[in-house]
Amino acid sequence: MAAEGGVSEIWSRLLMLMLREGQFHMARAFVTGATGFIGGNLVRMLIDEGHEVRTLVRPESDRRNIDNLPVEVVTGDLSDQAPLAEQIAGSDVVFHLAAHYSLWAKDRPEIYRTNVTGTENLLAAAKRAAIPRIVYTSSVAAIGVPEPGMLANEDTRSSLEELVSDYKKSKYLAEQAALSAAREGLDVVIVNPSTPIGRYDIKPTPTGEIIVRFLEGRMPAYVHTGLNLIDVEDVARGHIMAWQKGRTGERYILGNRNLTLKELLDLLSAITGRPAPRIAIPHFVPLAIAFIDEKILARYFGKKPDISLFSVQMSVMAMYYDSSKAVRELGLPQSPVERALEKAVDWFMSRK
Fold first, then answer.
1. Is the CATH number 3.40.50.720 carried by domain 2-197+231-256+322-335?
2. Model pTM above 0.85
3. Nearest Cα to Cα of residue 139 among 123, 121, 119, 125
4. Where would I find the H helices in 188-298?
5. pLDDT, tens digit, for every residue of 240-284?
6. Which of 175, 162, 215, 170 is nearest to 342 (CA)?
7. How confident is the model over 317-322, as a mean pLDDT?
């Protein structure tokens, strides 16, 4: 059995070398988080390029993003290393995108259980199954927010205490687990998407929610903040390039264009012909609304807050990032943000 395992590992690493050199085009990919926004786009891209795709899906997950796709669905979760090792065995690459995104303090236990413990379990399972390469999907949330007037990059280091929200803290801790696994010999590459936009935003994401609110005329005002936008298809491509070209133990920011929220709304106005809000409100207004929403309505009446305190606190600082390392080393595409917004608008409108 040991000899068979050795042969399997040698073959897997040979396959990885051929993929990087462009000499082999079909591989077996295992994807967690395939039902999500980035995951759904990644799975479609892998299929289009001829790869076999196996996905891990929780029993209660909304599967619309992978319905009717030629993928093998494995029902399970990230709670136990042993079944995970069996489920991912034989894969040439594991893309770990699954995460619990929430800025609501009530979701704290699930956030850490999924994002931190789940990632630790998957990394241990990958080591046990001798997976040749793992691409871990972190977030720019784990990098932190740059100083005013600066762009954060892969060398930016924030402490755990500096990060706002349990979600950001959980992604930081999970990324530390991935870096530790890489130092111990596991072939892990980390990608840090910024703010993706485009098709298949089922939930939607917070930025997708901004687009939906704009389309429905529910954005009478805005706050002064900024973010880094990128076409979600470029993010999916960045994952594949990280698998094929990324350096072990390195992290790569998958981003594109830094925009203020006002500039984003003006682009949406140009695309749709609908008026953009002209009134900027101070941050204390949404902060007060979020306090009432989360501390009173949510706590005493069970209403999930429309605005969380963490989200308002995060919006105080512009979240601008430099993705030149991923462009240079991976070949990360930089498709026009305007086109990505058009695709997002068309997709949301088609679902009405």
1. yes
2. yes
3. 119
4. 206-215, 232-245, 261-272, 284-291
5. 999 999 999 999 999 999 999 999 999 999 999 999 999 887 655
6. 215
7. 87
